Amino acid sequence: MQAAVMEESNATNIEQPIALNNGQEQVSNEQPSSPTSVATPTSTNSGTGNATPAFSYDDLFPALPANTSASVPLSNSAGPAIARVTSSQKTQVLHVPGEERKSTESEKFGEGESKRICQQITKETGAQIEIASGKNQSLTFLIKGKQSELLDARRKILMSFSAQASRQVSIPKEHYRVILGKRGERVRELERLTSTRINIPNQGDESDFITIAGTKEGIEKAEQEIRQLSAEQYKKSSDRTTVPKIYHPFIVGPSNENLNKLQEETGAKINVPPQQVQKDEIIISGEKDAVAAAKAKVEAIYKEMEKKCSTVSVEVAKPQHRYVIGPKGATIAEILQLTGVSVEMPPNDSPSETITLRGPQVALGNALTVVYQKANSVKSVEIKAPHWTHKYVIGRKGVNMKQLEEDCPNVNVNCLEDKIKLEGDPENVDKAMSYLTEIIRNYEQNFTYVVMTVNPSYYKHIIGKNGANVNRLKDELKVNINIEEREGQNNIRIEGPKEGVQQAQLELQEKIDKLENEKSKDVIIDRRLHRSIIGAKGEKIREIKDRYRQVTITIPTPQENTDIVKLRGPKEDVDKCHKDLLKLVKEIQESSHIIEVPIFKQFHKFVIGKGGANIKKIRDETQTKIDLPAEGDTNEVIVITGKKENVLEAKERIQKIQNELSDIVTEEVQIPPKYYNSIIGTGGKLISSIMEECGGVSIKFPNSESKSDKVTIRGPKDDVEKAKGQLLELANERQLASFTAEVRAKQQHHKFLIGKNGASIRKIRDATGARIIFPSNEDTDKEVITIIGKEDSVKKAKEQLEAIIKECDEVTEGEVVVDPKHHKHFVAKRGFILHRISEECGGVMISFPRPGANSDKVTLKGPKECIEAAKQRIAEIVADLEAQTTIDVIIPQRQHRTIMGARGYKVQMVTSQYDVQIKFPDRDATEPVEGLVNGETNGVDGETTEEPVRQCDVIRITGRIEKCNAAKQALIDLIPIEEELNVPFDLHRTIIGPRGANVRQFMSKHDVHVELPPSELKSDVIKVSGTPAHVAEAKEALQKMIEDYEADRADRELRSFVLQVDVETEYHSKLIGRQGAVINKLRADHDVNISLPKRDDPNQRIITITGYQAKAEAARDAILEIVGELQTLHREVIEIDSRIHSHIIGHRGRTIRKIIDDYKVDIKFPSSDDAQNNPNAVTIIGKEDDVENAKEALLSMAEDYERDYLENLPPSPQPQTVGAFLAGASGGSNNENGFIIKDAPWEKQKQQAKNLTAPNTQSQEDFPHFSASGTPVAATPITSVWGPKN
C-alpha cells in the first residue's frame, strides 16, 4: 500500500533559511547578552592623584561584528542567513491514494458529506482547506494556515478520509506515565504529529497493550516514538541503602551542601528522609552508573564518620532548646558548618533536657562552647500585669513600645492573659523589665476599672443619639466606656482615673435606674391601617408624638410585615398614649367601611359626569373614596370607602343616577331557603340560565346565616318581571316535587333542538312545564342535556326530546326549488350562508346544482325535522332576496377608508347587524354623477360646500328597504369628526410615551386619531378625530389623564424635597456597606433617594437625600445614628513594612478577611494617595479591646513575614553601565575632574576639519537603506562623521 504523500511549501515566496517556532528567523551572529561580556575599559592614566583619567573609545564602545555579506546580493540563497520578516502562514499538500480512501461509493467529491466534513475541520482548526479528486479516486487536499493548525487539520483529514488501520504495542505499565506526559500533553502532541489516535489502558486494566489507530505511516512513526520512550526508561534505575539516622546530617551537610554536591557529581537523585521522620533508609534513583556511584559515595561518608565520630551529652534547660535549634533549624545548621559536629535535640514532647553532640573528637569541645553560647544568648522573663493594663503598657499608637525598641533593641514583648513575657539579650531584657514594671505600677496606683451589668435594651438610651451621652462622659471625666457583649454577658466597662470612674459609674447607674422605671408596651394594629395612622406627610403621628414627647412610638416598616406598634416611655405617658392611639384606630376603622355597588356598565359615564363633575361632587359632599373599574374592565362594581353613614349616602346617590336614566327596578321574592340549592342548580347552572334568558338581570340570594327568605332581583323592569315569574314557578315546582333527568344528543343537533330564538325548546317547556338546560362552554361533557321539574313533566319532556333526537339521527333526503338567479347569493363567500343554515338546522347537508347546469332544484340530506327547518330558512332568505332593493349613500371618497376600518371590520359589523350588502365604488371612477351635488341631497358629513358628486363617492346598500335605511344611517354615523382639546403641554410627552407607544395604544383603544402639535410651538391644543361616539370617549379619557397628571405633579413636588447631610468622607464606605447593602436598605426603608458625592464635586462631605420631607428627615436621622455609632469606635494606626502588606492580605484577601471576622474590626491599608505620605501605615478600627487584639495578631504576623521573607530577600543586581566601568577603572574613587575619551569619531573629525558639521543624512554608511527587493544599493561616496567603517 502506498503511504499518503505530503508536500510542504511556504505561504509566501520569500525564503526562510533558518526558521524559528514563532515564525521569525534566527540570526547566526549573536550579540553579547550582557555588558559583562564587554572588555573592561583600560585607562591610559598613569600615576596617582587627581589627574583626569583617559579611556580608549574602542574599549568603551566596542565595534559590532563585521558584516561579511554586505556585498552579497539579498537574493543569493547560498550566502549566510539573513533575517527577514516572513509570513507565519504555511501551505501543505496532502495526497490520499484511491486504494487508501475510506469509501469511493459517494456523491461527487467536494459536495455533500465530504464538503460538510471539510467545513467542520476548518471550523475546529482554523485552517483553510481546498479539495480535489482524481480519476483514480485519489484525493488531494491543499491546507493553508499556521503550523499548529496544519498539523491538527492534517490529522483530522486523514482520520475522516483515509482508511484507518490499528496496531497493538506491548509496553510495561510502569512506562505509561512517561508516554502520557504531564496532564497527557506528550501523548496529545504525539497524536498531533503522527495523525494517529493512541489509546493507553487505565492502571486498573489487565492489558499491557497500547493501541495505535491511523494511517500505516502514522502508526509506524507513533510506534517508533513510544518504543524509544520506553527504551529510555529501561536505562533508568533506583537503589536503597541503610544508613543510621544519626549519620544523616553528615551526608546532607549544612543547608544541604553535601547532598547537592553529591547529586551534581553523580547525576543521581538522592532522597534522604527529613529530620523529623525516623527512617534510616536512603533512596537513590537515576542512571544505573550514576546510582552505583552515588551509593558508593554515601556509604563511604557513613563508614568514615562511623570511625571518626564521638559523642558528648550536655544538660540545657528545656526553654532554652529553641535558641539552640534556631528558626527552622538554622542554628543547628550553623553549628554543623562551623564545627563539623551534629547536634541532636530531644523531641518537643519529651521532658528530657539532654542535648547530644556527635562528631570528630577534636571538634566536640568547640561545638560544646557554641551550644552554650546559643542557649544563653537569649533571656526570658515574665512580668505580672493585669490584662486591663496591657493597652496602657503599649501606649497610645504604640508609643511605649517604640520607646522600648529604641532603648532596648532586640527584645521581644509578648502580652499574655495576666502577664507580659520578655525575650532577648539578657542586658536589654533586664532594662526593659525595669521600664515596664514602672509603667504597670503607676497605672495600678492611679487607674482602675468597674464592670456594670446592664440590660441590652438600655444600650441605645445610655449611648444617646449619635453617642452624645457616652461622649460627654468621656470628655468630662477622661474615662473610657466600652460595651461588652461576650458569651452571653452584657456589661459596660469603665476605665480611667479612679475619681472619674467613680463619677461615671454614679451617672450611668442613675440613667439605668430611670430606664428600669420606664414601660414598654406593644399595640397590635392591623398593618393596613399603619399608613392611615401616620397620616399625610406624617401629620397624625406627629400630633401624638408632640402630645407625648417622652414616649417613643415605633411603627414597623412595610417590609417588616408585622402588626405590632411599640410604645416606650414613662408608665403614665405610655398608658395615655396607648388610649389615644386606640381611639385614633377606632376612628380610622369607622371611616374605612367598604361597600360594593353594582351599576350597569353603560351608566358609569353618567356617574362620572362631564369632566368628572358628578363623581367629584359625590366624593366631596359625602367625604368618601369612590373607585370605578377601568374602561377596559368588564367588572361593573363601584367600590365606596368611608364612614358607614357616608358610604350608604354615596351608594344611594349613585343608584339614584342609574334609576333616573333607566327603568332599573329592584324587587324581592319570598322563597323558602330550603329550595335555594335546587333553584341555583349544580354549579349555578340553573340560576345562570335564568339570568341569561332574562336580559342579564342580577339575582341575589341571602347568606345562609341570615335565614332570610327574600331573594333580590335587579334590572330592567320587564326582565325583572320575567325572572320573578320563573323563580316563583320554580319555587312552586320544588314545593310539589323536584326531579332531574338527563338526555344525550350530538352537539351539532343542539341548535336545532333549541330552535331559532329558542322557539323549539320554549314550545316543549310550555307543553310540559319542565326546565331544560343545555351544556355551557365550561362543561366538559357537551352532549348531556339536563331536564328539571316534576317527575311527570320531566318524563314528558324527555320523551319529546328523545323523539326529536331520534328523528335527527335518522338521515333522509329532500328537495327545494330555488330560482337559479339566487344561487350565487347562497354559495358566495365560500358558502358562508349555507354553513350558517347547516349549523342552525342540526348539521343538514345542502347541495346546490353546479354552475351552468340550468337546474333550480336544491338537494338537502339529514334528519327529517332538520330538513324541514332548512327548507323554511331557505324560503325566508329567498323571500328576502325577492324583496331586496338598492339605495345610494353619498359620502366623499376620501372618508371611505375610515368608514371601512382596519381590514373592513367596521363595514362588516354593519352588514352583519342589518343583514345587508354594501358595495364601495372604485376609487379611480372620478366621473361626475348628473343631478347630484354634495350639500344638497343628503347633507352628509355636515358639508355645506357645493361640489359635484363623483362615481367614487356613491356607496350602494342592498337589502330590505327598512334594513337598508338603518344601515345607511349606521354608515353616516361612522363619518369622522374632528375636535380640539386643551391639554397642558407638559403632559404631551406622557401621552406620546416611549417611541409613541402610549399614543398608539390610546388611538387603538378608542379608535380615534390624535394629532399633537410640534414641540417647538409648545401649544396646548390637541386634535382628536374619529366617529362622534369614539371622540367623546377619547375626550373623557384625556380629561381623566389631565386630572391624574395634575395630582401626580403635586405629588412629585412633595417628593422633590432635598436635604443635605454633612458626613466625614471616611464614613461614606460604611454608609454604603458591602455591595451597597446599607445604603440600599436606607433607601428602601425610608422611600428616598440617597446620593453620595461624585469625585469631581467640590465638597466631598455632603450626602444628598431626596424624597418626602418627613421621610428625608427620618433617613437623615438614621444616617446620623450610624455615623454616631462609627464615631464611638476606637482607631489605631500601626507601622507594618509595605513590602509584606500583600502577604498579610493573602490570596484574594482571605487572610485579612479572617482577621477582620475573628476580631470584629475593620482594617484599612494605605491607598495610592496615602502611600505617598506613609506607605507602612495600617489603620485598625473597632472596639478598643478588639483593636488591641487585632493589632497584636497583625504585628505577630508582620514579624514572622519580616523574618522569613524580607531577611532572605536577595539584593537587587545593579545594572552594569559605562559609568560603572569608569568607576571600576578609577579604583572606585570619585574623580571630580571627569574623564577623557581618546580616538573618538568627533576627535578625528576635528583633526580633519575645524568646523564641525551635522551628520549627513545622505550618507549610506551613517543611514543605510533597508531594501527587500534584493537589489544591492550602491554606496554613496560620502565620508561619514563617525569615521571610516570598521
How would you describe this structure to a colleague?
Keywords: Coiled coil, Cytoplasm, Repeat, RNA-binding. One of its GO terms (biological process) is regulation of gene expression. It comes from Drosophila lebanonensis. One of its GO terms (molecular function) is mRNA binding. InterPro entries: KH_dom, KH_dom_type_1, KH_dom_type_1_sf, KH_Vigilin_N. There is one protein chain. The chain is of the alpha+beta class. The protein contains 47 helices and 50 strands. The strands form 17 sheets. Strands 1-3-5-4 form a four-stranded antiparallel β-sheet, with helices on one face. Strands 6-8-7 form a three-stranded antiparallel β-sheet. Strand 4 and strand 5 form a beta hairpin. Helix 8 runs antiparallel to helix 9.
